[in-house]
Specification:
There is one protein chain. The relative contact order is 0.14. The protein folds into 2 domains: 17-53 and 164-371, MetI-like fold (Orthogonal Bundle), CATH 1.10.3720.10; 59-156, no CATH class. The longest helix is centred in the middle third of the chain and has 37 residues, at 160-196. With 376 residues, the chain is α+β, with helices and mostly antiparallel strands. It has 14 helices and 5 strands. It starts with 16 loop residues before the first helix and ends in a 5-residue tail after the last helix. The chain has helices at residues 17-20, 24-33, 36-53, 55-58, 160-196, 198-212, 216-225, 233-263, 267-274, 279-287, 292-315, 327-331, 337-342, 348-371, and strands at 79-81, 87-99, 106-117, 119-129, 133-141. Mean pLDDT is 80; it is low at 8-21. The radius of gyration is 26 Å and the shape is elongated. The strands form 2 sheets. The chain has a 3-stranded antiparallel β-sheet with strand order 1-2-3, with no helix packed on it. Strands 4-5 form a two-stranded antiparallel ribbon. Helices cover 55% and strands 13% of the residues.
């Protein structure tokens, strides 16, 4: 008699009593914690999401506050020693603007006779923390009359750092909401396609082939153009989330379908059918857990794709619209060579996108290896 196939959802067998008492999630965490790159990426992502959640508190200014006298201001240097070389609390010097009357180029220089200490928990204008909590305190700032542009300003004199943190609320939340919808659709339809087969499988696969037959960027543009321009920014935001989700579930559904096709004829699944287990129990207890690692890696790879998709739509002017901001919206100010040559700090949102995408990829790879039921 042949040996029954192993259930991938079951906990790996072991004779060690301590290991035998561990749950599948404890074993997954143990394997994940050994991947230092994945753990570091997870920490960076957690910090980014924490700052994005309390973006107004971590920003020195409101993201739409104009400083018309400081357009295209370069990042201010933070000094820790005074002019005599003695250690001092962090401070910035006053900025003075000058215009070259020949080329009309704007330049800035530090006024070394006036310095502004950097202060923490400074009072500010009223704002709503997380959208509904009244607050009047910001983490960092300087005394009245000074400026604190750690990452410079844009063409309207708006603080880049404040706009990056506020834009992170959109750029980091779109992929989470969109990926949740993608996972829900992709997992359920993928399992249904493989488990029930026949007409259900045929219909779902033809729908997936229809979706992936269209070029992605033009399809995004076409669907985004269907969103009325008169809609408020919040509705446009939801429209972008739904569009990116409805297009991206096909690849996950095919991955899940392939794994379920391999598992549904295993002896543990056949035994569950014989004892009268419901379709729902078989799917959720035996089939989906076996595909967990593949769902995780596909989902984490979908998150960077959604970030890039939202940034692309906003960069092209058909995604998120003002007064809302995102990293893609901010990159529109750096879409020509002259802007990058003269004001390189305008590309900071692009660096944030690269950092976030890399962290999600490393984090997803670590989760995939840790969730693999056959991992050592």
């Amino acid at each position: 008699m042949s040996r029954p196939a192993a259930d991938p959802a079951a906990e790996p067998a072991t004779d060690h009593p301590a290991a035998a008492s561990r749950t599948i999630w404890a074993l997954t965490w143990r394997r994940f914690s050994k991947n230092r790159l994945a753990v570091a990426s997870g920490v960076i992502l957690a910090v980014l999401y924490f700052i994005a959640l309390f973006a107004q508190f971590f920003s020195a200014y409101h993201h739409d506050e104009f400083h018309v006298e400081f357009k295209f201001s370069p990042p201010q240097k933070v000094h820790f020693t005074d002019r005599n070389g003695r250690l001092s609390r962090p401070f910035v010097y006053a900025y003075e603007r000058s215009i070259d009357m020949t080329t009309l180029a704007i330049s800035y220089r530090e006024v070394r006779t006036t310095k502004y200490p950097i202060r923490f928990f400074v009072p500010s204008e009223p704002y709503k923390l997380i959208g509904f909590i009244p607050a009047r305190i910001r983490l960092i700032g300087v005394d009245e009359g000074g400026t604190l542009f750690l990452w410079g300003t844009d063409n309207l004199g708006r603080d880049i750092l404040s706009r990056v943190w506020t834009g992170a609320q959109v750029s980091l939340s779109v992929p989470l909401v969109g990926t949740f919808i993608t996972i829900l659709l992709g997992s359920l339809l993928g399992v249904a396609s493989a488990y029930f087969g026949r007409m259900v499988d045929n219909a779902i696969q033809r729908l997936i082939e229809l979706l992936i037959s269209f070029p992605q960027i033009p399809l995004w543009i076409a669907l985004s153009a269907a969103v009325p321009v008169t809609w408020p920014s919040g509705f446009v935001y939801l429209g972008v989330v739904v569009i990116l989700s409805l297009i991206g579930w096909g690849s996950l559904a095919r991955v899940v379908r392939g794994k379920v096709l391999a598992y549904r004829q295993e002896e543990y699944v056949m035994a569950a059918r014989v004892v009268g287990s419901s379709h729902w129990r078989i799917i959720t207890r035996h089939l989906l857990p076996g595909s967990l690692s593949h769902i995780i890696v596909t989902a984490t790879l979908a998150v960077p794709g959604t970030i890039l998709g939202e940034s692309s739509l906003s960069f092209l002017g058909i995604g998120i619209t003002p007064p809302m901001t995102s990293w893609g919206v901010m990159l529109r100010d750096a879409q020509n060579v002259q802007a990058l040559v003269n004001h390189l700090w305008l590309a900071t949102p692009g660096l944030m996108i690269v950092l976030t995408v890399l962290c999600f990829n490393f984090f997803g790879d670590g989760l995939r290896d840790a969730a693999d039921p056959f991992a050592a």
